[in-house]
């Protein structure tokens, strides 16, 4: 009976705990910073982008948003705002690719999206161009972007 008592009943004395080995705290090793390239922007979500592509995409997005607001007939409801911002982004991606001839990867990095998302946006806008009113809107937006940035894919040669 003594054996069962020692095995199953807790003793009144506490057993000393073994010492815990303390590991010295070390600072985490950060990855090296990308080399600074003159005329480029380093983004945390992607590689170093040429400033021209990044800024061109931002300008196209702003121009697209302004033109959509000019064409809009009413103040968008809360649920419509998200849809409108998605359409603005898709149209901007399409115009950047078609008019400015920026690669899908660079456009994706500029908008914080993947290149496949940019390809999908281009397909969606291309499918919507069957509507004459939408086609006129995209054509006018393409003319504005061409007049702002010059010849497609580069600067105007004067």
Written account of the structure:
With 158 residues, the protein is mainly alpha-helical. It has a domain at 49-149: Orthogonal Bundle (Chromosomal Replication Initiator Protein Dnaa, Chain: A). It is 56% helix and 4% strand. The chain has six helices and two strands; from the N terminus they run αββααααα. It has helices spanning 2-8, 51-71, 78-98, 104-111, 115-128, 132-149, and strands at 40-42, 48-50. A two-stranded antiparallel ribbon has the order 1-2. Strand 1 and strand 2 form a beta hairpin. Helix 2 (51-71) packs across helix 6 (132-149), helix 3 (78-98) runs antiparallel to helix 4 (104-111) and helix 4 (104-111) crosses helix 5. The longest helix has 21 residues, at 51-71. Residues 56-125 form the Chromosomal replication initiator DnaA C-terminal domain.
Q: Quick gist of this model?
A:
By secondary structure, the protein is mainly α. It is 56% helix and 4% strand. It has a domain of 101 residues: Orthogonal Bundle (Chromosomal Replication Initiator Protein Dnaa, Chain: A), CATH 1.10.1750.
Number of E strands: 2
Bin the helical content. 55-70%
Shape: elongated
Low-confidence stretches: none
Mean pLDDT: 77
Portion in beta strands: under 5%
Q: Mind summarizing the main beta sheet?
A: 2 strands, antiparallel
The number of helical runs is: 6
Element order: H for helix, E for strand: HEEHHHHH
How do the strands line up in the largest sheet? 1-2
What is Rg? Answer: 29 Å
CATH architecture of one domain: Orthogonal Bundle
Helix and strand content put the structural class at mainly alpha
- The CATH topology of one domain turns out to be Chromosomal Replication Initiator Protein Dnaa, Chain: A
- Please write the CATH class name of one domain: Mainly Alpha
Q: N-to-C terminal Cα separation, in Å?
A: 106 Å
Q: CATH homologous superfamily of one domain?
A: DnaA protein, C-terminal DNA-binding domain
């Amino acid at each position: 009976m003594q054996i069962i008592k020692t095995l199953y009943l807790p003793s009144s004395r506490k057993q000393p705990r073994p010492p815990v080995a303390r590991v010295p705290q070390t600072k985490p090793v950060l990855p090296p910073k990308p080399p600074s390239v003159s005329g480029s922007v380093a983004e945390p979500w992607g590689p170093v982008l040429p400033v021209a592509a990044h800024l061109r995409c931002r300008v196209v997005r702003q121009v697209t948003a302004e033109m959509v607001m000019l064409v809009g007939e009413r103040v968008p409801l809360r649920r419509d705002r998200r849809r409108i911002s998605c359409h603005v982004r898709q149209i901007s991606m399409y115009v950047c690719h078609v008019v400015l001839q920026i690669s899908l990867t660079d456009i994706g990095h500029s908008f914080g999206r993947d290149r496949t998302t940019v390809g999908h946006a281009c397909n969606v806008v291309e499918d919507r161009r069957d509507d004459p009113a939408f086609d006129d809107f995209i054509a006018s937006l393409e003319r504005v972007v061409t007049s702002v940035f010059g010849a497609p894919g580069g600067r105007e040669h004067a």
